[in-house]
Structures are given as structure tokens and as C-alpha cells.
């Protein structure tokens, strides 16, 4: 039997419109369990940010959010990391996220689960692995005989594992660096 034109290799390795719809729907549904980014900064963390009036020429800065120059006699809000921004800009910035736009210093959140996970970086990776494996071995996929869907899933899983591995490596490097600093090996 001849393969239909346009196919390279086995035509069963291709996904048709129905298979594509199933794949898209499954990815959308499985993606709902994975959080994108960090939760917003807590209201108390935002409300306690100190206001700093710019009094000297050397204190003049550019707000990294709106890019405007903060001039003498204007007021900024200062984050614990030391970076300053226009008050309105940083409050708007911190409503959907909890980190400094310059250095990614994280402010506390009202999300107790996230705060607990922050104490143990490996738990974040563990949770990500669990959701990936759940997605990969979902009943829908186990019942599917479409080899291109399986190849897609396996390739996607490989990419996610590589991504998580780099995250694990980053965590280990940071822990090692902090440990070296604590015992005085590096300044």
C-alpha cells in the first residue's frame, strides 16, 4: 500500500484535526493545575513600603516600571531590596506579583501554601513533577493509540524534565553559594 502524498515516514505518526483538537483540549485542561508565576504581594507588605522623598541630585532615579525620571522633591516607595519606584507604579506592579522588577526580590504573600513551599525549594520541584506525571499518564492519554500524540507527550515531558533539572541545578548552586558564604569561603 502506498503512503498518502505529503507524508514523510509512517502516516500513522501524524495527527489529524480530531487528534489535534483532543491534544489541545487536554493541554488546556492539564495546564490549569500549574500556577503561572508567583502570587501577589500581601496587602500588608505593600502598605508598609516606606515612602522616600528625593532631596538630593544624586538620589534622582528613573522608575524602572514607567521609565519616568523621579526628580527632586518627588516621592518614591522603597522595597526592602533598596530599589525605589513611583508609589503608584510599584503598587500596581505588586498587585499581580510579589517581586521587585529590578532584582526579583520577593515580598511576602498572603498565600500560605506558597510561603511554606518557598522555605523548601525542592518541594516546588516535587509539585511540578507530580503535575507533569499526572498530565502525562492521564486516562485520556493512556487510552489514545495515536503514536504522534505519544511522541508529542514524550517530547514535551523531556523538555519539562530538562527545565526542572536546570531549576534543581540552580537551587543546588544557590544553596552551595549561601553555605560557602556562611562558613566564610567567599566574601
The sequence of SSEs as H and E is: HHEEEEEHHHHH
Total beta-strand segments: 5
How many helices does DSSP assign? 7
Q: What's the pLDDT, averaged over the residues?
A: 71
List unreliable stretches of 5+ residues.
none
Termini, distance in Å?
A: 71 Å
Note the main sheet: 3 strands, antiparallel
- Radius of gyration from the alpha-carbon trace, in angstroms: 24 Å
DSSP strand content: 5-15%
Shape: elongated
Structural class: mainly alpha
The helix fraction, in percent, is 40-55%
Strand order of the largest sheet: 1-4-5
Total tally of structural domains: 2
Keywords: Metal-binding, Zinc, Zinc-finger
Protein name: RING-type E3 ubiquitin transferase
Catalytic activity: S-ubiquitinyl-[E2 ubiquitin-conjugating enzyme]-L-cysteine + [acceptor protein]-L-lysine = [E2 ubiquitin-conjugating enzyme]-L-cysteine + N(6)-ubiquitinyl-[acceptor protein]-L-lysine
InterPro entries: Znf_RING, Znf_RING/FYVE/PHD
Amino acid at each position: 500500500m502506498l503512503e498518502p502524498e505529503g507524508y514523510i515516514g509512517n502516516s500513522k505518526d501524524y495527527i489529524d484535526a480530531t487528534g489535534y483538537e483532543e491534544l489541545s483540549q487536554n493541554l488546556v485542561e492539564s495546564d490549569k493545575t500549574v500556577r503561572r508565576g508567583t502570587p501577589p504581594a500581601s496587602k500588608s507588605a505593600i502598605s508598609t513600603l516606606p515612602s522616600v522623598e528625593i532631596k538630593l541630585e544624586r538620589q534622582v532615579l528613573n522608575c524602572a516600571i514607567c521609565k519616568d525620571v523621579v526628580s527632586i522633591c518627588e516621592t518614591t516607595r522603597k522595597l526592602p531590596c533598596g530599589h525605589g519606584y513611583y508609589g503608584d507604579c510599584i503598587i500596581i506592579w505588586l498587585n499581580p506579583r510579589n517581586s521587585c522588577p529590578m532584582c526579583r526580590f520577593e515580598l511576602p504573600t498572603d498565600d500560605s501554601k506558597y510561603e511554606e513551599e518557598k522555605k523548601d525549594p525542592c518541594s516546588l520541584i516535587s509539585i511540578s513533577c507530580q503535575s507533569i506525571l499526572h498530565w502525562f499518564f492521564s486516562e485520556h492519554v493512556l487510552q489514545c493509540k495515536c503514536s504522534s500524540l505519544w511522541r508529542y507527550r514524550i517530547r514535551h515531558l523531556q523538555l519539562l524534565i530538562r527545565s526542572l533539572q536546570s531549576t534543581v541545578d540552580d537551587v543546588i548552586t544557590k544553596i552551595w553559594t549561601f553555605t560557602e558564604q556562611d562558613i566564610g569561603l567567599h566574601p
